[in-house]
Amino acid sequence: MASLASSVRRVTKYKIVWPLLAMAILYLFNLIVVPGFFKIEVIDGHLYGSLVDVLNRGTPLIIMAIGMALVIALEGIDISVGSVLAIAGSMAIFMLEGHSLWVAILASLVIGLLCGLWNGMLVSILGIQPMVATLILLTVGRGIAQLITNGQILTTTNKGYEFIGKGYFLGLPFAVYIAAAVFIIIYLLKTKTAFGLFLEATGANRKSSEYAGVKPRAIFMSAYAICGLLAATAGIIYSSNLSSADANNAGLWYELDAILAVVIGGTSMRGGRFYLGGTVIGAIFIQSLTTTIYSLGVPPESILLVKAFVVILVCLIQSDAFRQMLTFKRKVTTS
Amino acid sequence: MKALRIRVSSNNIIILATLLLLVLLYGAGSMMYTGFFSMQVFLNLFIDNAYLIIVATGMAFVIITGGIDLSVASVVALISMVSASLLEQGMNAYVVMSISLLVGIAFGAGQGYLIHRFQLHPWIVTLAGMFLGRGIAYLIGTESIVVKNETYTKISSYKINLFGGGFISISVVIALLFVILAILVGRYTGFGRAVYALGGSERSSVLMGLSVGNTTIAVYTLSGFCSALGGIVFTFYMLSGNSLHLMGMEMDAIAACVIGGILLTGGFGYLIGPMFGVLCTGIIQTIIIFQGTLSSWWTKIVIGFLLFLFMALQRLIVMRKEKGGNATQITRKIAKNNVKM
């Protein structure tokens, strides 16, 4: 047992190494193959270049993945985040007609929170498997978004709203600051409050944490609610970046990206400990991968294919049976 | 004639509720719209949903073992794309069908192997499978391909006339035969019993000496096969291949299973159930089409709501069973729910 414990500790210590390593390889590849990938220019006091672009476009994913990390820490999953993103974006732009900016943002966040609470209710009170419970909102959500937009693509010209996704502040995209704020808040929530402790305890072993006096239902509810809220935040940034809301295509396939970011970041699908730093790195890695595929001129359709293989590969690496099979070859297969 | 005396118990309560809902929905549709209560409208339910009946029945096997298969919709789309593009190159129709079935079987077996051998969550593997299927379909082509093959168009337009003036398509016959076969397999073969045992308790099945690994792989292979068969039937129906076909159909299949009384926690369910579930969702769709002004998105919303109701019902029954309560109160609850619909 002692050797098992020490090996687990050794692996956890290096959790963040994997995403960083993957990223280093990807960037090394870019350095050789894609000329100008690292070029950063300053135009009108704003930074421009592929790297800034990755950061800017990656913010919805980073925010969403942070929410997903909380849910996955509970051995749950939320595959409705892409639809919630679409609902929130549609809601915000719909409300901008005739309402002030703050009302629109608030309405959008509230609807995201409601979606999260709905998922949390299904999972914690009705005890439905998270996958199936959130599947309802995955498909119904796009229908709801369609109802809000009345089947059309809504656009906005509100300058204040566009600033959220397109504006620059001190040389960096404004959305990056939002992502940083979200990260810091959730990080403080994880490390400085009892909620973070309870969350990891419930994810690691629900029954024993229940015996220890933690109320799993409340924990599940809050985790899903936060996930919904963050998905809505991502939806606001996403729709403001495009100045439009498309109920059908906004955030399509984002759920896989978010799950992938969390898993690459070293959080196990089996719940328990979760890693916010790793999640952010994972999200940036995925966005870099997408940007790389685009700049290579490979048909963008193949992105889905590549990502599907990466998911399976990462899950295999996390699987005990696979590790036993390749005890000695592990380093070779992961690099 | 013992079988005719049906007693309401927690075992068949959901399927009875589904039948009641089916009659109520159809009755409501007939009352509201003229021309709804006709033989052909009813038969069209089968014609339009033949592929879904097949896919949902395959899904039922997976759910009974306690797993889930999210890749079904993208496999159907993939098969439609594969067969359309192969037919375009002038390949023989029957060869194309065999290739399609093989693709489905290989897809399912691969997923089953990953799930069993490496103890991965079924949904993460099949979620990846869902993206893989769509991804391959996108690679074959992003444009819709029309099927002009003679065999396919002939099968597609062939009508089997019934008594009373209605007609059905060959796809319906395939689907119904498949359901009957599934019921027989589930009831009378070792494989069927192993599936139910595995869903009841994996540990007990291992201790009983059932080969859990083979059953798991077989069940996902079966689901892959069903998706492929569904894909072929769907290609007959649409006569086109498109990588964007049936986005979100996996929920329809799962909804059909849940409405048809397959317990999501596994181990229980009648294999005729998914067909009733499909008919329920089909009637809802037909009502929305007859209504005319509602957008088609309402179908998804109503089915999602129905799925939620039946999940809540299942949960209630499981909780009752755990407490050892009787079924009469549940019956009342169902009656209430149906009135709400």
Structural features:
heterodimer; A: 335 residues; mainly alpha; two-stranded antiparallel sheet; 16 helices; 6 strands; B: 341 residues; ABC transporter involved in vitamin B12 uptake, BtuC; two-stranded antiparallel ribbon; 14 helices; globular; disordered C terminus
Structure characterization notes:
Chain A is mainly alpha-helical and 335 residues long. Chain A has one domain (15-334). Helices cover 73% and strands 4% of the residues of chain A. Chain A has helices at 2-13, 17-33, 50-73, 81-96, 101-125, 130-149, 159-166, 174-192, 194-204, 206-211, 216-242, 254-264, 276-296, 302-318, 320-325, 330-334, and strands at residues 41-43, 46-48, 154-155, 168-169, 172-173, 244-245. The radius of gyration of chain A is 20 Å and the shape is globular. The mean pLDDT of chain A is 85. Chain B has 341 residues and is mainly alpha-helical. Chain B has one domain (2-340): Orthogonal Bundle (ABC transporter involved in vitamin B12 uptake, BtuC), CATH 1.10.3470. Chain B is built from 14 helices and four strands. Chain B has helices at residues 13-32, 39-64, 72-88, 93-117, 122-140, 150-157, 170-188, 190-200, 202-208, 212-238, 249-259, 273-291, 297-323, 328-340, and strands spanning 145-146, 160-161, 167-168, 240-241. Chain B has a two-stranded antiparallel sheet. In chain B, strands 2-3 form a two-stranded antiparallel ribbon. The radius of gyration of chain B is 20 Å and the shape is globular. Chain A binds chain B through residues 77, 79, 122, 126-129, 131-133, 135-140, 142-144, 146-147, 151, 253, 256, 259, 269, 299, 301-309, 311-312, 315-316, 319-322, and chain B through 68, 70, 114, 117-121, 123-125, 127-129, 131-132, 134-136, 138-139, 142, 248, 250-251, 254, 264, 295, 297-298, 300-301, 304-305, 307-308, 311-312, 315.
